[in-house]
Design a protein that fits this description.
single chain; alpha+beta; 4-stranded antiparallel sheet; 8 helices; 4 strands; 42% helix; binds adenosine-3',5'-cyclic-monophosphate; NDK-like_dom; transferase; nucleoside diphosphate kinase activity; nucleoside-diphosphate kinase
Length: 144
Protein backbone atom coordinates (compact mmCIF):
# COMPACT_ATOMS: atom_id res chain seq x y z
CA UNK A 1 0.00 0.00 0.00
CA UNK A 2 2.90 2.35 0.64
CA UNK A 3 4.82 1.52 -2.54
CA UNK A 4 6.32 4.69 -3.97
CA UNK A 5 7.41 5.54 -7.50
CA UNK A 6 9.21 8.49 -9.05
CA UNK A 7 7.48 10.21 -11.97
CA UNK A 8 8.85 13.18 -13.93
CA UNK A 9 6.96 15.21 -16.50
CA UNK A 10 9.68 16.17 -18.98
CA UNK A 11 10.15 19.65 -20.50
CA UNK A 12 7.98 18.76 -23.52
CA UNK A 13 5.12 17.61 -21.31
CA UNK A 14 5.32 20.76 -19.20
CA UNK A 15 5.59 23.05 -22.25
CA UNK A 16 2.57 21.38 -23.86
CA UNK A 17 0.38 21.96 -20.83
CA UNK A 18 -0.03 18.30 -19.88
CA UNK A 19 0.79 18.64 -16.15
CA UNK A 20 -2.82 18.83 -14.98
CA UNK A 21 -3.96 15.97 -17.23
CA UNK A 22 -1.15 13.72 -16.00
CA UNK A 23 -1.65 14.51 -12.31
CA UNK A 24 -5.37 13.95 -12.76
CA UNK A 25 -4.82 10.48 -14.27
CA UNK A 26 -2.72 9.33 -11.29
CA UNK A 27 -5.18 10.82 -8.80
CA UNK A 28 -8.18 9.20 -10.48
CA UNK A 29 -6.37 5.85 -10.47
CA UNK A 30 -6.24 6.16 -6.68
CA UNK A 31 -2.65 7.09 -6.02
CA UNK A 32 -1.50 9.69 -3.50
CA UNK A 33 0.84 12.54 -4.39
CA UNK A 34 3.48 12.59 -1.64
CA UNK A 35 6.07 14.85 -3.33
CA UNK A 36 5.85 17.54 -6.02
CA UNK A 37 8.17 20.19 -7.37
CA UNK A 38 9.06 21.97 -10.58
CA UNK A 39 12.79 22.28 -11.33
CA UNK A 40 15.12 22.84 -14.24
CA UNK A 41 17.45 19.90 -13.56
CA UNK A 42 21.20 20.52 -13.40
CA UNK A 43 23.44 18.61 -15.79
CA UNK A 44 24.73 16.62 -12.78
CA UNK A 45 21.24 15.61 -11.74
CA UNK A 46 20.29 14.65 -15.31
CA UNK A 47 23.45 12.59 -15.81
CA UNK A 48 22.94 10.77 -12.50
CA UNK A 49 19.29 10.16 -13.26
CA UNK A 50 20.11 8.63 -16.67
CA UNK A 51 23.36 6.97 -15.51
CA UNK A 52 22.34 3.57 -16.92
CA UNK A 53 22.15 5.08 -20.43
CA UNK A 54 25.52 6.83 -20.40
CA UNK A 55 27.03 4.62 -23.13
CA UNK A 56 24.05 5.07 -25.46
CA UNK A 57 24.36 7.25 -28.57
CA UNK A 58 21.37 9.33 -27.49
CA UNK A 59 22.77 10.08 -23.99
CA UNK A 60 24.07 13.63 -24.56
CA UNK A 61 20.91 14.60 -26.45
CA UNK A 62 18.81 13.13 -23.66
CA UNK A 63 20.70 15.11 -21.00
CA UNK A 64 20.48 18.38 -22.95
CA UNK A 65 16.77 17.84 -23.55
CA UNK A 66 15.92 17.05 -19.93
CA UNK A 67 17.88 20.12 -18.71
CA UNK A 68 16.36 22.42 -21.35
CA UNK A 69 13.42 23.59 -19.24
CA UNK A 70 11.21 22.93 -16.25
CA UNK A 71 10.50 19.35 -15.23
CA UNK A 72 7.70 18.47 -12.81
CA UNK A 73 9.12 15.85 -10.43
CA UNK A 74 6.69 13.80 -8.38
CA UNK A 75 6.50 10.91 -5.98
CA UNK A 76 3.29 8.87 -6.12
CA UNK A 77 2.31 6.33 -3.50
CA UNK A 78 -0.09 3.39 -3.51
CA UNK A 79 -0.58 -0.30 -4.15
CA UNK A 80 1.44 -1.52 -7.13
CA UNK A 81 2.33 2.04 -8.10
CA UNK A 82 5.67 1.25 -9.81
CA UNK A 83 4.34 -1.25 -12.37
CA UNK A 84 0.96 0.48 -12.73
CA UNK A 85 2.57 3.86 -13.47
CA UNK A 86 4.64 2.20 -16.21
CA UNK A 87 1.45 0.70 -17.66
CA UNK A 88 -0.32 4.08 -17.52
CA UNK A 89 2.68 5.77 -19.17
CA UNK A 90 3.03 3.26 -22.03
CA UNK A 91 6.02 2.05 -24.06
CA UNK A 92 9.21 4.14 -24.37
CA UNK A 93 8.41 4.92 -28.00
CA UNK A 94 5.10 6.81 -28.09
CA UNK A 95 4.39 5.32 -31.53
CA UNK A 96 4.44 1.86 -29.92
CA UNK A 97 2.31 2.95 -26.94
CA UNK A 98 -1.32 1.93 -26.90
CA UNK A 99 -3.99 4.64 -27.05
CA UNK A 100 -5.19 5.18 -23.49
CA UNK A 101 -1.65 5.44 -22.17
CA UNK A 102 -0.07 8.85 -21.58
CA UNK A 103 2.52 8.48 -24.34
CA UNK A 104 0.01 6.71 -26.61
CA UNK A 105 -2.45 9.58 -26.25
CA UNK A 106 -0.08 12.55 -26.36
CA UNK A 107 3.21 11.78 -28.15
CA UNK A 108 4.88 10.58 -31.34
CA UNK A 109 8.63 11.00 -30.68
CA UNK A 110 10.89 8.72 -28.57
CA UNK A 111 13.17 11.64 -27.71
CA UNK A 112 10.16 13.74 -26.62
CA UNK A 113 8.15 11.15 -24.77
CA UNK A 114 6.54 13.47 -22.19
CA UNK A 115 7.09 11.55 -18.98
CA UNK A 116 9.44 9.24 -17.07
CA UNK A 117 8.51 6.58 -14.52
CA UNK A 118 10.77 4.34 -12.42
CA UNK A 119 11.16 0.87 -13.93
CA UNK A 120 11.73 -1.14 -10.73
CA UNK A 121 11.71 -0.92 -6.94
CA UNK A 122 15.46 -0.29 -6.94
CA UNK A 123 15.17 2.49 -9.52
CA UNK A 124 12.27 4.06 -7.62
CA UNK A 125 14.29 4.16 -4.41
CA UNK A 126 17.35 5.58 -6.17
CA UNK A 127 15.44 8.19 -8.19
CA UNK A 128 13.32 9.40 -5.26
CA UNK A 129 16.50 9.92 -3.20
CA UNK A 130 18.18 11.68 -6.12
CA UNK A 131 15.38 14.20 -6.75
CA UNK A 132 13.89 14.72 -3.27
CA UNK A 133 15.09 15.32 0.28
CA UNK A 134 13.13 13.23 2.76
CA UNK A 135 11.67 16.42 4.33
CA UNK A 136 10.07 17.21 0.95
CA UNK A 137 7.95 14.04 1.06
CA UNK A 138 4.78 13.57 3.07
CA UNK A 139 4.91 11.05 5.84
CA UNK A 140 2.05 8.85 7.05
CA UNK A 141 1.70 11.12 10.08
CA UNK A 142 1.13 14.22 7.94
CA UNK A 143 -1.41 12.45 5.71
CA UNK A 144 -3.60 10.81 8.33
P1 LIG B 1 12.75 7.36 -20.18
O1 LIG B 1 11.67 6.43 -19.79
O2 LIG B 1 12.87 8.64 -19.46
O3 LIG B 1 14.15 6.58 -20.06
C1 LIG B 1 15.22 6.75 -20.94
C2 LIG B 1 14.94 7.74 -22.01
O4 LIG B 1 15.84 7.72 -23.09
C3 LIG B 1 13.61 7.42 -22.62
O5 LIG B 1 12.58 7.70 -21.74
C4 LIG B 1 13.65 8.25 -23.89
O6 LIG B 1 13.24 9.56 -23.68
C5 LIG B 1 15.13 8.23 -24.20
N1 LIG B 1 15.40 7.39 -25.34
C6 LIG B 1 15.31 6.06 -25.41
N2 LIG B 1 15.63 5.63 -26.64
C7 LIG B 1 15.94 6.74 -27.36
C8 LIG B 1 16.33 6.97 -28.69
N3 LIG B 1 16.50 5.96 -29.54
N4 LIG B 1 16.54 8.24 -29.07
C9 LIG B 1 16.39 9.26 -28.19
N5 LIG B 1 16.01 9.10 -26.91
C10 LIG B 1 15.78 7.86 -26.51
Amino acid sequence: NDERTFIAIKPDGVARGLVGEIISRFQRKGYTLVGLKQVVPSKDLAESHYEEHKERPFFSGLVSFITSGPVVAMVWEGKGSIAMARAMIGATNPLASAPGTIRGDFGVDVGRNIIHGSDSADSAKREIALWFKSCELLTEVVRS
